[in-house]
Design brief:
Shape: globular
CATH class of the largest domain: Alpha Beta
Number of domains: 3
Radius of gyration: 20 Å
Number of strands: 12
Distance between the termini: 42 Å
Low-confidence stretches: none
Mean pLDDT: 92
Length: about 375
């Protein structure tokens, strides 16, 4: 009996090989979190190992552009068209933007793992186990887990040794960082990847274990080290158009890696201080009798909203929606609890939103400022019904 594969996996592998063989421009487009960064690096290394070249990497600055495939990005990348655009860890909700991309001369492959919202965009190829018609039994791979499966298809029997090890460690880190369920395929990826991590050839990963300051006041057990590595790699600062973690994970210099880690530790310390201040401020203002937490500020750091929401959701065992106020709009993060699907909840209020999407327990949204109060009321009303 033939093994069930993720829908469109073979088609995507074939299309990328065709692009490499024809010398097409290939653009790798990813989210700025660790899953998106690892997935993008893996796609780039897949292309490189097959003798191809990546024309550009692109990671949208969430604060300036928003999330996903953006019109700003398409305008910046237009000079490279015609091209193959491979979007990872985003894109499944970008219906209009995918149409614009194809009109501009881009062939689009989407590799995403987020919830499907009323169909899939009209991309050339879509990989998402949650899409209609995908019979693959396990639906909860991280985007990097999907790219790992794509690499297995792409390389076939040649996906072994150091090549497989280098992909496994990235997929494992991303799967843990994105808090994917430790079940089925994810257990296999994590076990294989963590074993590979301990003997990693990547200077950016080896340097963690060679930097004394990194494990200061630490128990020095592997789990503790792993959590600290992920916390540092999840710094989403954009430097020269690329996430900080991308620079660290792709450098070939051990000394540069150690220098970057020291910088990231300082950034992480400042982030933690900002998070603690924001959480303490919210704790004094929230209505503890309300079924959810809903609040925002103009001066909050957009990249910290997910962590702030996660802490509050754990502390109060209720869904949390926090947002940064922009010009006429807000951009926010939602974190939920067992039994409450944040994406499904927002779908019931979708007419009040510009965009939304993500996972049941971790998602995001964008809305007009004028709709905020009505959005809060809609969430509360539908939460009471659930």
């Amino acid at each position: 009996m033939e093994e069930t594969k993720i829908k469109n996996l073979a088609a995507a592998a074939k299309r990328i090989k065709t692009a490499i063989g024809a010398g097409e421009n290939i653009i790798v487009y990813g989210d700025t979190d660790l899953d998106g960064v690892c997935a993008a690096i893996m796609i780039g290394e897949m292309i490189k190992n097959a003798g191809g070249k990546t024309a550009a990497y692109y990671f949208p600055d969430r604060e300036k552009e928003g999330y996903g495939i953006t019109k700003t990005a398409l305008e910046k990348l237009a000079r490279l068209a015609p091209a193959l655009l491979v979007a990872v860890d985003l894109g499944i909700g970008n219906f209009e933007e995918v149409k614009l991309a194809r009109q501009a001369g881009f062939s689009v492959i989407i590799v995403d793992h987020h919830e499907i919202l009323g169909g899939v965009p009209e991309a050339d190829i879509v990989i998402d186990p949650k899409q209609p018609g995908d019979d693959y039994p396990f639906k909860f791979l991280a985007a990097s887990g999907l790219v790992f499966k794509l690499a297995e298809e792409f390389f076939g029997a040649d996906f072994c040794g150091n090549l497989r090890q280098s992909f496994a460690e990235m997929a494992a880190l991303a799967t843990i960082a994105d808090m994917m369920p430790r079940q089925d395929d994810n257990i296999e990826i994590i076990n294989e990847g963590l074993a590979a991590l301990k003997r990693s050839f990547r200077p950016g990963l080896r340097a963690f274990f060679d930097t004394d300051a990194f494990f200061e006041n630490d128990s020095r057990n592997f789990k503790s080290r792993l959590n600290k590595i992920i916390a540092v790699l999840n710094v989403r600062d954009i430097r020269n158009g690329l996430p900080a973690a991308f620079e660290l994970l792709t450098t070939d210099s051990l000394e540069k890696s150690k220098k970057l880690i020291r910088e990231f530790l300082e950034i992480n310390k400042l982030r933690r201080e900002k998070i603690n201040v924001a959480v303490a401020e919210i704790e004094t203002q929230i209505d503890k009798s309300a079924p959810l937490i809903f609040c925002g500020r103009r001066d909050w750091d957009l990249n910290l909203l997910g962590t702030i929401a996660s802490i509050l959701a754990i502390n109060h065992n209720k869904p949390v929606f926090v947002y940064k106020i922009l010009n006429g709009q807000v951009q926010g993060a939602a974190r939920s609890i067992d039994g409450v699907d944040s994406v499904a909840l927002m779908k019931k209020c979708s007419e009040l939103l510009i965009t939304f999407g993500g996972h049941p327990k971790a998602s995001g949204f964008r809305a007009k400022t004028e709709n905020l109060e009505e959005f809060k009321e809609c969430l509360t009303k539908n939460l009471d019904k659930s």
